[in-house]
Amino acid sequence: MRRVHRIVLAVALGCATAVPAAAQGPLEPVWDTVATILRTPAVPSAGYVRYNLPRRDFTVRMGDVTLAVPLAAGAWVGFAGTARQAVAMGDLVVTRTELGPVEAELLRQRLDVTGVHDHLVGEEPRLTFVHFHGEGAAADLARRLDSALAKTGTPRPVTVAATPPVTLDTALVFNALGQHGRAAGNVAQLSFELVAKKVRWHGDPLVPALALGTPVYLQLINPSRAVATGDFAVLAPQVGPVLRAMAANGIVVEALHSHLVGETPPVYFIHFWSDGRLAEVVHGLRAALDAAK
Fold it and tell me: Which helix (H) or strand (E) holds 270?
């Protein structure tokens, strides 16, 4: 299963970017079967198939800000491999009352729990992210995960909403951060690679472009205000410089933890919250990115 582990790890870290189905070729029938079981569309991505499970059954607020789903409640699972030998990894977004039942069901279904933590501090309702990993036949994995999802209020079937026109100044964001991303409505998403050293998991080297991405989400609140969340994936020597750069630019570090168990060297994930004028938020993020490099 080592080859499959390498392919799917990007999903565990939430860094891979979906690409058009045409670029991936037709999906194997098993991935449509998984979509039917999980009741959410299959999204072909680079080396795996992604299934989004957004928590649209509640509204997440940070103080006076109502957050878009991608910034606070974007649960998902990714599958890689074959119909008979697949790996599934991702993270579920759960409420306090759902946490215990979900953890117990994941373990009962022989799905490993590889991380349990918060991504924000002070959000309402309070949410916890549960990272998981499983191996086996693809359809069987989907049924096992479906059993855990049933312990949550995740709305299913998942429908794909129409993409709203972009209202965020993407030229400002993308140019300042030195990378093009995706945007819809008042939200922009970018992904970076900040880990240059080879990292191994289960004895296999990980491809940085697939496994060690840093997602950043920005949301325009009004013409004079924006917020940003995400997580920087870095190695130990980068943690201190990134934390200092964030603090110097008014970015609050809301979590520092790992998403996996046993990778070498360990990779740390720095979740952050930034709130201010769009140009100031972007400037602070650029300083943190430069510190990581």
Answer: strand 268-276
Contact 272, 229 (CB under 8 A): yes
Are 185 and 144 members of one domain? no
Collapsing DSSP states into helix, strand and coil, what is residue 60? coil
Alpha-carbon gap, residue 215 to 150, rounded angstroms: 28
Question: Could you give the residue ranges of the DSSP H alpha helices within 150-234?
Answer: 170-177, 208-211
Reference 169, options 190, 155, 183, 156; nearest CA is: 183
Looking up tokens 């922009």 gives 188
Residues 6+ apart with CB under 8 A from 111: 88, 132, 133, 134, 144, 145, 148
Please report whether residue 161 resides in a domain. no
Q: Structure pTM? A: 0.85
Q: Provide the pLDDT confidence category of residue 44 given band limits of 50, 70 and 90.
A: confident
pLDDT bracket for residue 7 (50, 70, 90): very low
Assess if residue 156 is contained within a domain: no
Same domain, 145 and 204: no
CA 45-199-82 angle, to 5 degrees, is: 35
- The β-bridge relationship of strands 65-66 and 123-124 is unpaired
